[in-house]
Request: fold
Amino acid sequence: MSLGAIGAAIGAANPAISAIGTVAGFFTSFKERKRAKRMRRAQKKRALKTESRLFGAAENVVQDFALQRGFLSDEYDMGKEEGILNYGQKLQDFQNMSGQQGFAKSGAMDKTKNQITDTYNRTQEQMGLQYDQGVYGINRQEESELRDIQGSLYELSG
Reply:
């Protein structure tokens, strides 16, 4: 065969080769689009599942910290009651002792009674401050954990 005949055969076959390439390209891109669609559905399903879990985690965080605040409040209430009982007992013991020793109307009794009251008041203030610090710390931890969850949700949506 001559070079011209080979060129003519290729020229005649070119439209047929082009048509075969077009058909093959259509089926290849169809499979690719179908695969991509399947992958998008799977990603969406995973994202929805993860989102649901994150919302559940947020609910758990809120419940957990509410429970911690409840424990802290109970501890504070018990300490306050104990302080009141101790204060009453100390006053009663002091009055009994001073009555037995004849100091019932002396200035020393008033001074000691004031010291007992001042000690009680300071103890109650310290307990209140510790309670406030505990609540503040719990609130900060809760906010931090909820921000982490919020950040994860934001990343998931992006």
Summary: The helical segments are 3-101, 107-157.
